[in-house]
Design brief:
With 328 residues, the chain is α/β, with parallel strands linked by helices. Helix content is 48%, strand content 11%. It has 15 helices and eight strands. Helix 8 packs parallel to helix 11, helix 8 crosses helix 14 and helix 14 packs antiparallel against helix 15. It is found in: Cytoplasm.
Length: 328
């Protein structure tokens, strides 16, 4: 029997990955932060709080014990929210199983990419990043999905593709973890902007413009950090942005839509079980971009709205008042 796969994080995405990776009957361990959540999942096999209707296969073991989850695992999939990755990695014992980072975000307060966080806190472990256009419920249901696995270590990326790939869950290799990370983080911010435009009644033309210009500013930041331009036209770039910025099923788009329709951020975040990554990433992306003299006007507008510095109307007016210039 092959060594187990450990999935660290039992939200919707972690649960979906556990289901997808257990389809070959290989052992999968799913770690849940809360003991009561882990106990319920192990007993009921259903994660109604995060992914209603999906059932965990019998080959998935759920635990609240991080050491038990990671002991002798072949790879650790880090699926906690981006702002919790550092805290999780600080709890890990030293080991040599590689980390596959599946969260999408930039660390608030430091502006660090998650691979930078991992290199500092888990320096003995090889790193790869998984990203792409994915709705968790479709992955759990076995619907066709393509993702990107990116690493500086191509043999590692190839081994991970072989380990977790299946006919319905198809990973493609990339040598550009930086580009994949930036694309996955920033698309959540652009999705909020697109939701704001539709919710505020600005129209489909405005959303298309925000999506396209959002991809351009994401690419600028990615290139400044060392990413490759082709990444932003691929699954982790355009693919993920197109999915996230056009569907009310996207948490980030739905947040922007509701804000545009007049809801307050406090109302929307109160009692929410799922994390909206773009709300934290907007300011973090700006922090990192400012260090490299990269302009992110759409991310700036979203951050101003989220942090209460501007109304939607004022932020959009500011975008429209920017100087005319060549596209690029």
């Amino acid at each position: 029997m092959s060594a187990p796969i450990a999935i660290l994080g039992a939200g919707a995405w972690g649960t979906a990955l556990a289901i997808a990776l257990a389809r070959d009957d290989g052992p999968v361990r799913l770690w849940a932060r809360r003991a009561d959540h882990a106990g319920w999942l192990q007993q009921s096999r259903h994660n109604d709080a995060y992914l209603p209707g999906a059932r965990l296969p019998d080959s998935v073991t759920v635990t609240n014990d991080l050491d038990q989850a990671t002991n002798d695992a072949s790879v650790l999939l880090v699926v906690t929210p981006a702002q919790h990755v550092a805290g999780l990695l600080q709890q890990l014992k030293r080991g040599d199983a590689p980390l596959l980072l599946c969260a999408k975000g930039i660390e608030r307060g430091s502006g660090r990419l998650l691979t930078e966080v991992a290199r500092e806190l888990a320096p003995s472990r090889a790193l790869a990043v998984l990203s792409g256009p994915t709705f968790a419920d479709e992955v759990a249901a076995g619907k066709p999905t393509a993702v990107t696995i990116a690493s500086d270590d191509d043999p590692l990326a190839a081994s991970l593709v072989a380990r977790i790939g299946s006919p319905s869950f198809r990973p493609y290799r990339s040598p550009d973890p930086i580009g994949v990370e930036v694309a996955g983080a920033c698309k959540n911010v652009i999705a909020i902007a697109c939701g704001l435009a539709i919710g505020a009644g600005l129209g489909e033309n405005a959303r298309a413009a925000l999506l396209t210009r959002g991809l351009a500013e994401t690419t600028r930041l990615g290139l400044a950090l060392g990413g490759r331009p082709e990444t932003f036209a691929g699954l982790a770039g355009l693919g993920d942005l197109a999915l996230t910025a056009t569907s009310p099923r996207s948490r980030n788009y739905a947040l922007g839509l509701a804000l545009g329709e007049g809801a307050t951020l406090d109302e929307l975040m109160r009692g929410r079980s799922s994390v909206v990554e773009g709300a934290a990433t907007a300011g973090a992306a700006l922090l990192r971009a400012n260090r490299h003299s990269v302009e992110l006007p759409i991310a700036q507008a979203v951050a101003d709205i989220i942090e209460g510095r501007a109304t939607i109307r004022d932020a959009m007016r500011g975008l429209l008042a920017r100087p005319f210039k060549a596209e690029g």
